[in-house]
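Cross-posted from the bioinformatics board.
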Amino acid sequence: MNLPTDSNASGRDLGKEELALLKEVINSGTLNATKGTMVKRFIKEFAKEYEVPFAYATTSGTASLHTAIAAINPDPGDEIITSPVTDMGGIAPILYQNALPVFADADPLTLNITAEAIAPKITKRTKAIIVVHLFGKPADMDPIMELSEKYNIPIIEDCCQAYFAQYKSKNVGTIGDIGCFSLQQGKHMTTGEGGIVITKDPKLERRIRLFIDKAWGYGDPKPDHYFLALNYRMTELQGAVALAQLRKVKRMVERRRKTAKMLTERLQGTTGMTLPETTEDNVHVYWKYALIVDTDLFGVDVNAFSAMLKERGIFSAPRYIQKPAFMCEVLRDRKTYGRSHCPYDCSRRKGEKEITYDVNEYPGTMKALERVLVLPWSEFYTEEHVDYIAKNIKEVMKFYISKKEKNAKITI
Ligand SMILES: *Cc1c(COP(=O)(O)O)cnc(C)c1O
């Protein structure tokens, strides 16, 4: 069986709606959003869907997160707390703003960070907390917002994997101070590359808008380049595709939720697996379907499961990311600017505690990565696809259980 995939037409809802809007853009002869109307239409509709006053389009999820951090404007050497289980696009921008990533341990079952893990990492230099709603499942926001209020630290929500996921009836991205989204090929909605930033705060809005466009004060009586900023402007071509995709995304999310529910029903009660939860107060949108496998019970690691599923045409990502962010070369070896190791070795941190990463502080993260098996998910999965996936997962699990039992007998 060939499962649809988000890397091509088999698993992407791209068609006449996108083409019609693209045609409008081409015929207009204006491909740049400053002069064009399509990106403006897109972000207006996006803001309306999210019931926020401000939305801006960018060139990627990474650009969106960079914009959010730049809007908060940390001083060099300040700290930003985030998850060690995320895309590097959520971490590199912290260093580009000369701030330091500090990691909170991830929950071993959801892989999201929790208030409990964030609290001990807060210092007087903490300038923001980035909360990633991993795989499309909302993090537990209430206690995180309590910390935010108590210490007056802004929250950036990384919603790249969580379009229209809801926490206590609120869309994620509207609970904290800034919400960031990606439109990369593999996300719920796509323009190939692209991103969105939303906020309710007018002060942050101004810096977000400026940062995306070289901080040039368009429309001001005496415009200037007000501060250091880049060009992260989306093109009208992307805007056209984004607008068409936006009009489909809620349906895509609903389809994903429906087929994920089917898989959960079929796998319920299977020994040795924890299935992703979705409740009325915590609505999962299944960017991916992540299983936590009891590897001790089966006596093999998740790579073995993945390899056997692959033989049956089911691709999965064992461990999701091979290692937590702080073990990647860029952070481990502080490969940043020239030979400086800035901002880790930074005059703005003289006399303060050095930021180092000790794997022993992350038992939840390490346990989660050892056990997680991430199944790609698609709005194009049918009941037949789900049956096929469920049947094969059960067979592979059974195979390893009986193999372990056989081995146990031999040793007796
Ligand atoms: C995809 C993703 C990003 C980065 O988005 P790009 O568009 O690839 O730059 C950041 N954070 C998370 C959680 C993501 O899934």
